[in-house]
């Protein structure tokens, strides 16, 4: 699969853009684990134009994580064009436009998935951004605003006509938020449209390697995007890659998984500071499947998520690792 001249190989699997999740450290780890392309946290066009430090910091890319897409969102043409030019100067491989974020503070103000209620404005923004930069521009969006307005098949053509080089479709409407099941049949309809020639990337409910493989074989998408299932489990990309490619390499071991979490903790603290770095990493620890199934784990889990300094947190993680290893079945 290619996006413009960027070759992502056969059946690529991407790390989805997620606010407060896909920082530079996490992106690099996911890339090392087999992600074909990674996306930054989404970037507010208005904040970028105003040069807000917490926003401009999101533009930093490690050379080893490439190819990387920086995703922007906004509701007005001017700021989106200006933001796209600022992003282009940061030299990502791709500029992605977010027309899919469903949260109220974004969609409720007309940006993100809110644009699904104003298609002319969405197309105007897309066309203007494509015309303003020399980098490939892609779009991520949803099926429609609600069940009564699943417009994605027609919308995909319209976005292609604006000049985008790939389209990612999350298989839910905005009204669904993240509830219910992603509609992959609808994503397949987008891909089957003979008038659509750009790559189609499917997104939604890819939680296992087998579901990623089936997205290619059953629904025919060009690429797959993994989001929430990667939080606290960046090794999912390694597992997916082996499943899709049919290789028999060793799965990531328990020790390595815990070491990846330790690395995230250290890098989060180094990037921010001890207190806020630990706060940031708690989302990954809370979501990690490493801790599922541990008998009577709740008190230790609470202790882990309440730890406020690096020494205590790492000590707790060491204790948890010992418990997990003791409960591993013998080979």
Provide a count of the helices: 14
How big is the Rg? 20 Å
How many β-strand runs?
11
Main sheet makeup: 8 strands, parallel, barrel
In quaternary terms, these chains amount to single chain
Taking pLDDT < 50 over at least 5 consecutive residues as the criterion, the unreliable ranges are none
End-to-end CA span? 39 Å
How much of the polypeptide forms β-strand, as a percent range? 5-15%
Mean pLDDT, to the nearest integer, reads: 94
Largest beta sheet: strand ordering? 3-4-6-7-8-9-10-11
Topology order in helix (H) and strand (E) letters? EEEHEEHHEHEHHEHEHEHEHHHHH
Secondary-structure-based class equals: alpha/beta
The percent range for helix content is 40-55%
Shape: globular
Pick out its properties.
about 325 residues; about 15% strand; 8-stranded parallel barrel; alpha/beta; two-stranded antiparallel sheet
């Amino acid at each position: 699969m290619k996006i413009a001249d960027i070759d992502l190989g056969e059946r690529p699997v991407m790390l989805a853009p997620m606010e407060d999740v896909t920082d530079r450290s996490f992106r690099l780890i996911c890339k090392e684990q087999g992600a074909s392309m990674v996306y930054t946290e989404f970037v507010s066009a208005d904040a970028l134009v105003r040069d807000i430090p917490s926003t401009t910091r999101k533009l930093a890319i490690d050379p080893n994580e490439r190819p990387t897409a920086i995703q922007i969102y906004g509701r007005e043409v001017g700021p989106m064009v200006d933001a796209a030019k600022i992003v282009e100067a940061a030299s990502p491989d791709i500029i992605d436009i977010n027309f899919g974020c469903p949260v109220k503070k974004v969609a409720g103000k007309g940006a993100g998935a809110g644009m699904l209620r104003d298609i002319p404005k969405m197309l105007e923004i897309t066309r203007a951004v494509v015309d303003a930069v020399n980098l490939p521009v892609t779009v991520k969006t949803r099926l429609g605003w609600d069940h009564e307005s699943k417009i994605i098949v027609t919308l995909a053509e319209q976005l292609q006509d604006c000049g985008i080089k790939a389209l990612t479709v999350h298989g839910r409407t905005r009204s669904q938020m993240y509830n219910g099941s992603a509609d992959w049949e609808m994503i397949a309809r987008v891909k089957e449209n003979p008038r659509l020639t750009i790559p189609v990337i499917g997104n939604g409910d890819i939680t296992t390697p087998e579901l990623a493989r089936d997205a290619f074989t059953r629904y025919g998408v060009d690429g797959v995007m993994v989001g929430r299932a990667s939080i606290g489990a960046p090794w999912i990309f390694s597992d997916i890659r082996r499943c899709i490619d049919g290789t028999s390499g060793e799965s990531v071991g328990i020790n390595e998984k815990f070491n990846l979490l330790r690395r995230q903790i250290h890098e989060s603290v180094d990037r921010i500071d001890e207190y806020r770095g630990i706060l940031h990493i708690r989302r990954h620890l809370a979501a990690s499947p490493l801790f599922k199934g541990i008998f009577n784990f709740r008190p230790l889990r609470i202790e882990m998520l309440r730890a406020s300094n690096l020494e205590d947190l790492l000590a707790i993680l060491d204790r948890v690792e010992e418990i997990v290893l003791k409960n591993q079945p013998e080979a």
